[in-house]
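FW: tagging you since you asked about this chain on Friday. Here's the raw sequence from the shared folder, copied in full. Didn't touch anything.
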Amino acid sequence: MSSPTTHRLSEAQKKFYHDNGYLLGLPAIYTRAEMAALNAALPNLLALLKSDETTKDIREWHEASTYLYDIVMHPRIHDLVEGVLGPDFYCWASNFFIKDPHSMSTVGWHQDSYYWPMAPNNSVTVWLAFDDVDEINGGMKLIPGSHKGGIIKHRKSEQTNSVLTLELEDGSDFSADSAVQFRLKAGECSLHDDRAIHGSLANPSDRRRAGLTIRYSGTNVRNDLAVNPNFKTYLCRGVDEFRHNPIGTPPTQRYGRPSFKPVSIEEAGRR
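HL: got it, structure written out here
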């Protein structure tokens, strides 16, 4: 196992994240063998999906599955997150984004924070690659520095293949000329600010593109329970002196799903 300091961010990495809103080139969270084991077990989780659901409906299942809870609470991930958010932070969301081979699904340009009923903006998304990810199989792209421009009003998507119904438009809301292509090996992760503009294209390749997004926030961030009443936090490090949000109970079963569905601002009809 890597030493405890291996995954802690350097001052140069912290500055790059602050200036650009993302980080790549980070040490792997899992070895290739460990990722092979996680992928071999993944069908047990997918088997819990209902007939009218897709993998994008796997949201906050870490609350009912130790398979996912162990990932979101991994100390190597927490080392990275602590370098961005500081010593006091919690986990509150996890989502699978899986594009099967030849999938036409896209993720339109967007800002994560536009969908979340949370304030202030002090959150980071960890994108953990379950497969090797690049431009060939629909890897993510991000606009460096876009997190500094504030929250932009999203519009209804006109892309029938987009998994999002609200998104931003290149050339109108921003320019994608400077977009950075994310490339990750299975077991590696990226970090990005909740206000950074990002998206991804379809996967025309013969390779699957699977990733788990994990959301962490500083303990000063409050969720609007009137919008998302089932919101729960899992303290990862430090102390929660603010006590703004309900606290979740760690799961006990290996594969499970919560009895509720989380609600975004859009789903609550607030956008």
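FW: The chain is about 15% helix and 20% strand.
HL: agreed, and The chain has one domain: 11-237.
FW: great, closing this out.
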